[in-house]
Amino acid sequence: MPTPYERLYENLLPKFRSYEIPLMTTDEVKSELHDYLLPAIVRFHVCKKNLKDRDDILEQFNMELLDEEIEIISNFMLLEYIDANCIRTPSLLKVNLSSSDFNAFSPANFLDKLLLMHETYRKENETLLSRYAWIPQNDKNDAISKLKKCVRKKHNKI
Prior knowledge:
The protein is mainly alpha-helical. Helices cover 61% and strands 4% of the residues.
C-alpha cells in the first residue's frame, strides 16, 4: 500500500510554528514542504526501504512506510526547514542593531539558541536512526533471522 507524502506533512506540521502556513493554500503548503522532502530522504541513508521508489506526480512512496520511517523523514524535513528558514538567513547573520538595542536583543545569542535547537533535533533524530537500524526486517533472509534459525536447529539437536 503506497504512503502518500501527505502523511509526512501531517506528521511534520505540528512540530513547528510558522506564521505563513495559515495564510497559504493547501497546495502552497504542500509545495513548500515538498522542498524539504528530497534533502530529508537523502539524509535517511540507512532506510531499509528504497525511498527512491516514489511517484512525485501522485505524491506518494510506492510502498508502505513504517511509523518510525515517517517520523525520521519528517524530523529530517524539520531540520531542513529550520536550517533554511531560521539559521541560514541573512537577516540573522547580519548584525544591524545599535549598541543600545544590542543589550535588549542579541542576534548572535538568538542564532546560538537556534543552532542549539537544531543540534538537539539532530541528536534526537540520530537516536531514532540508531533504534530504527536495530529493528529486524521481516525478510527471512536477513542475518538476524538466519542466526535465530541456526540457534533453533542446534537447540533441537540437543
